[in-house]
């Protein structure tokens, strides 16, 4: 069923940010829906290596009648009516097309992982900085109102205390077809495998809990699963901070789908079971408990964690598009400067990912950041 579209015109009162989508990946379907629902954005163009495929994608995914379909990525970047691009291409293509987009003055919402390594990412971010371009990666859960609510508890010294430990797990249930043919298991497309895909979320959740303070070092856990092409299907790592804090994560394409984060403090504990994609679109819940205690006979808990629910009118991917579009509009309309928060967070995530991969290559040695 085709998604309902909305008109995209510079004459609209809201003057929305006009998006072009570079590629017709599956995740682009979700983002097309999000752009259609965001109050300050609209779909403007889509490009594929096949004009027929681009036209079919636009027809199936709610693009308005005045949108354009292109049979080459560069043609979309040359379109003067496109303000920003969403790039869901395989990671190996990010450095080429993100840099070209920045040079054509298109603001960039880039699918994660942002790059194959921090050296490539620095080229992308350098091009964005040189051209006054807003950059943001596509880590959607960062924009859910639940995320901000949880942070309020983590900074409450009376209830949470000092941060002690973060454990993050992201397992993506897959099938033999995925493990054989998906782009995320192909070294020439997404060579980072599960580490770059779901591991990116784990690393981001850990950095988020630490207020984006980088660890001092990282050490991969023994026993990663690597396919015949050398792509990581499953791995884990421990991260270490100078103050003695540690974090552990496990990411995998093998096993039952799991998306858990637990943040332990000296007084409280926060836990959520669906941090990447909420169980429900319009709400997100988590557990929090402070100074837990057993009952008199130690047969149960006298002080138990409580469940907190956060409602949202718009799902997290729409809120991501809305925030990105707000930043782009500020540059366009007020001649402001790009917000540096998001590229800085992306770079820190990439640095940790690089260290974990390096540790795997070096036989699980500790790698300094």
Automatic annotation (TrEMBL):
GFO/IDH/MocA-like oxidoreductase domain location: 154-270
Highest taxon of source: Eukaryota
InterPro entries reported in the protein's UniProt record: Gfo/Idh/MocA-like_OxRdtase_N, GFO_IDH_MocA-like_dom, NAD(P)-bd_dom_sf
Domain Gfo/Idh/MocA-like oxidoreductase N-terminal as annotated: residue spans: 17-136
GO terms, molecular function: nucleotide binding
PANTHER family tied to this protein: OS10G0403700 PROTEIN, PTHR46368
Family indicated by similarity: Belongs to the Gfo/Idh/MocA family.
Protein name from the UniProt record: Uncharacterized protein
Organism encoding this protein: Amborella trichopoda
């Amino acid at each position: 069923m085709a998604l309902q579209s909305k008109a995209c015109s510079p004459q609209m009162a809201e003057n929305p940010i006009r998006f072009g989508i570079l590629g017709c990946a599956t995740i682009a379907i979700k983002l097309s829906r999000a752009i259609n629902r965001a109050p300050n954005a609209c779909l403007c163009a889509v490009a594929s290596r096949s004009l027929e495929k681009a036209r079919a994608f636009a027809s199936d995914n709610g693009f308005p009648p005045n949108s354009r379909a292109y049979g080459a990525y560069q043609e979309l970047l040359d379109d003067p009516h496109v303000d920003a691009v969403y790039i869901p291409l395989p990671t190996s293509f990010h450095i080429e097309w993100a840099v070209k987009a920045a040079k054509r003055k298109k603001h960039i919402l880039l699918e994660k992982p942002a790059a194959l390594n921090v050296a490539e990412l620095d080229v992308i971010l350098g091009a964005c900085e040189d051209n006054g371009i807003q950059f943001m990666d596509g880590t959607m859960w960062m924009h859910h109102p639940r995320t901000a609510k949880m942070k309020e508890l983590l900074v409450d010294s009376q209830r949470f205390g000092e941060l002690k430990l973060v454990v993050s797990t992201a397992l993506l249930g897959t099938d033999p077809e995925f493990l054989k043919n998906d782009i995320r298991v192909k070294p020439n497309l997404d060579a980072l495998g599960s580490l770059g895909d779901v591991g990116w979320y784990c690393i981001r959740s850990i950095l988020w809990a630490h207020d984006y303070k980088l660890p001092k070092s990282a050490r991969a856990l023994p026993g990663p699963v690597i396919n015949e092409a050398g792509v990581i299907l499953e791995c884990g790592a421990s991260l270490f901070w100078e103050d003695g804090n540690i974090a552990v994560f496990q990411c995998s394409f093998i096993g039952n789908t799991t998306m858990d984060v637990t943040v332990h403090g000296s007084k409280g504990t926060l836990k959520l079971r669906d941090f990447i994609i909420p169980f429900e679109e319009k709400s997100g819940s988590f557990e929090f408990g402070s100074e837990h205690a057993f009952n008199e006979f130690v047969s149960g808990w006298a002080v138990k964690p409580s469940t907190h629910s956060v409602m949202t009118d718009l799902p997290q991917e729409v809120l991501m598009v809305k925030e990105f579009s707000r930043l782009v509009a500020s540059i366009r309309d007020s001649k402001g400067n790009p917000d540096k928060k998001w590229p800085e967070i992306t770079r820190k995530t990439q640095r940790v990912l690089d260290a974990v991969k390096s540790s795997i290559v070096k036989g699980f040695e500790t790698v300094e950041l």
